[in-house]
Amino acid sequence: MSTSADASTPYKVLVVDDSRLQRKILCSSVKRWGFEVVEAASGEEALVIAEDFKPDLVLSDWMMPGMNGLEFCDAFRKLSGDRYGYFILLTSKSEKNEIAMGLEAGADDFVTKPVDANELRARIKAGERILLMQRELTRKNDLISETLDELQRVYNSLDSDLLEAKKLQQSLIRERNKSFETGDVSLMLRSSGHVGGDLVGFFPAGAGHLGLFSIDVSGHGISSALMTARLAGYLSAAAPDQNVALHKLEDGSYAFLPPEIVIETLNDLVLDEMETEHYFTLLLADVNLETGHVRMAQAGHPHPAIQRKDGAIEQNGPGGFPVGLMSGISFTQFEATLNPGDRLVLLSDGVTECPNPQGVMLEEEGLEAMMRELRDVSGPAFFEAMLWKLGEFAVSQPFPDDVSGILFEYHGVDAAK
């Protein structure tokens, strides 16, 4: 018995011929071969039957009154949709152009009349092989569609979680800008994806002192973002007892430890307490709000940029080794003094290493040119303008890496009076 590929039921065959005798002969043979058979006396009747019967194979005479075999074949193809039916035309025609017409109408094969039973059986067998492949392809496509639907549901769930994670990561920066008596600080954090590995922040560091930190964790995505959350706790502004950059004095106040010692402590914490392959670069600064004196330590992070009141720009620093790669590493403190009207800019390498369409990076020279153009722009507007100009340089969005920064503008004691 000839059965369909998707069930134990036999293939369905629709026999269409205006000759009752011809239909009887064909139906008798096809039933004997194990098929389920339905007959129709015209193309119009066959279309009505096919709509509900949904045949797997069709044997149709070419020459019929009313709707002929070619017209029926064309209409059947439009009716069948995704379910393919193998169509065999029964004809006495043998000219090449006529066969081409049949193929264009959608016929799969031809059997010359008078019909030879052995030939017809062979043609049907060939059709069964096509149907088997088509059914198997349909089954696999259905499986692929189901898998893609499931993947889409998983993606939607992950996307929703990542959007929430983005909100949580952005909430690590409680204040984007704050004014002090002698200066203003502004923060910028823009991830290349939903979440990223950059983190910037500031914290009170004792009487007249302000701590600044700019962090760039290796890699991107969720694991990097989780590490930034952990590091935010180590440099917390809300819990000075937990801030590794501070030590408590006898009177209960806090003071900033030497920045290089703080970074060494963080290096030990990462290697000893965090089971991670990530490392990070860091620039940590202790700003004296009264004098403008700045103590800094650098761990593989881009150099700090100091823009003087007259527009001149200085980018200096020892460079240093990233945190979390090797134990026993020492870091070097370096210093600078801000005068009234000067400003300090700390940026992640997402700025200086941002490429243009030709693959050329902005680098320190490009940053200096950008800062000179923005010398009269201050506060949050400075970063908004910088992102705009960086977008013009890169041409394409989003940026390939996370972009973050801190701007500290020193006004001086006299300006505070």
UniProtKB/TrEMBL annotation:
SUPFAM superfamilies in the record: CheY-like (SSF52172)
Entry's Gene Ontology molecular function annotations: protein serine/threonine phosphatase activity
EC numbers, comma separated: 3.1.3.16
List of residues that carry 4-aspartylphosphate: 61
PROSITE patterns: RESPONSE_REGULATORY (PS50110)
Domain Response regulatory: 12-128
Coiled-coil ranges (or none): 134-168
Keyword match Cytoplasm: no
Entry annotated with the keyword Phosphoprotein: yes
Keywords attached to this entry: Coiled coil, Hydrolase, Phosphoprotein
CDD domains named among the record's database cross-references: REC_OmpR
InterPro entries in the record: Bact_Sigma-Reg, CheY-like_superfamily, PPM-type-like_dom_sf, PPM-type_phosphatase-like_dom, Sig_transdc_resp-reg_receiver
Protein name as catalogued: PP2C family protein-serine/threonine phosphatase
Lineage summary: Bacteria, Pseudomonadati, Pseudomonadota, Alphaproteobacteria, Rhodobacterales
